[in-house]
Write a structure and sequence with these properties.
Distance between the termini: 65 Å
Number of strands: 2
Number of helices: 2
Oligomer: single chain
Structural class: mainly alpha
Strand content: 5-15%
Helix content: over 70%
Length: about 110
């Protein structure tokens, strides 16, 4: 095992050194290496478009629900109703309730 490492490591270092020198000397080689990186980045961006779209849609839905709960609470607060909304699930509960009837959360 140790003998393999003494052979493999210097060969690996030599290959890396050769690649670095080739990139420094040859603009054509450097361009080929960069074009591969650009193609890989474009591929990753194309593959992740649907994931990003799904994440933004889910966040918009969650934000919409939060805004609806908040506006309902503001509206009901302006009408001086004796009911409040649960801070855990957003359900309408009585003002003097210690627990939510929907989720059981303590108020």
């Amino acid at each position: 095992m140790v003998k393999v490492l003494f052979i493999f490591v210097p060969v690996f270092i030599a290959c890396v050194f050769i690649l670095v020198v080739a990139q420094l000397i040859s603009p054509k080689f450097r361009g080929k290496m960069m074009s591969r990186q650009i193609k890989a980045a474009k591929y990753m961006m194309d593959e992740s478009k649907d994931d990003i779209r799904n994440i933004s849609t889910n966040m918009a839905d969650a934000t919409k629900d939060g805004i609806e709960i908040t506006t309902r609470a503001i509206k009901d607060g302006l009408t001086k109703d004796e009911r409040v909304y649960c801070k855990h699930c957003g359900s309408l509960i009585d003002k003097d309730s210690k627990f939510c009837k929907n989720c059981g959360g303590e108020q």
